[in-house]
Amino acid sequence: MRGARAGNSSTSRQVEDIAGGGPPTIAAVQSRTRVLVVEDDPDTLAAVAAALRDEFAVWVARDGEQALEVADELGFNADVVVIDLHLGPGMRGDQFAAEYRRRAKGPARIVVLSGVPLARELGRAIGAAAVLPKPYDVGELVSTIRILSPRKDEGSAAD
User: Fold this and answer.
1) Can you say how many angstroms the Cα of residue 132 is from the centroid of all Cα atoms in its chain?
2) What is the pLDDT of residues 68-115, one digit of tens each?
3) 111 within 8 A of 141, measured Cβ to Cβ
4) Has residue 9 been placed in a domain?
């Protein structure tokens, strides 16, 4: 299950395969903020990917284990990681966040996007940079990623 590039896997793909459009060029991916989205609900995953794809290079995973594989392909160096806390059976979002943080090559900028009742408290406990409730506001999610991105030279236009 490899997944950082479009077409490598049917379970984990770069966002253009999920949300429409063709694969990006290497230069476009290298210059954009890299966002890893971890969400078990396919509809929410597709909606988040579609909302982010015009501005960011987005990778997706549907569970914690798959997210670790994709993160490994990215060298545990995504600019921002967006996670749901409840990822269905297997690894929970907080467990993925802890493992990602342990392996990260630099700061782990984690955004929790969750409908879990105690999402804010759990987000604070895992050191999340931001916690957004579901249903989420697309503009707020995009703005949050822009603010957290270390690549301030692109994608800094106001909403």
Assistant:
1) 13
2) 999 999 999 999 999 999 998 999 999 999 999 999 988 999 999 999
3) yes
4) no
Q: Does the CA dihedral 24-26-32-36 come out positive or negative?
A: positive
Q: Please answer whether residues 110 and 128 qualify as being in contact, where contact means their C-beta atoms are separated by less than 8 angstroms.
A: yes
Q: Residue 84 is part of a domain; what is its CATH number?
A: 3.40.50.2300
Burial class (CB in 10 A: 0-12, 13-18, 19+), 9: middle
Could you report the per-residue pLDDT of 63-73, keeping only the tens digit for each?
999 999 999 99
DSSP letters, 72-138, are: HHTTT--SEEEE-S--SSSS-HHHHHHHHHHH-SS---EEEEE--TTHHHHHHHTT-SEEEESSPPH
Q: Which residue has the tokens 């063709």?
A: 22
**Residue 37 forms part of a structural domain:** yes
Range of the domain at 89: 15-147
pTM for this predicted structure:
0.80
Task: Identify whether 99 is part of a domain.
Answer: yes
Number of domains in the chain: 1
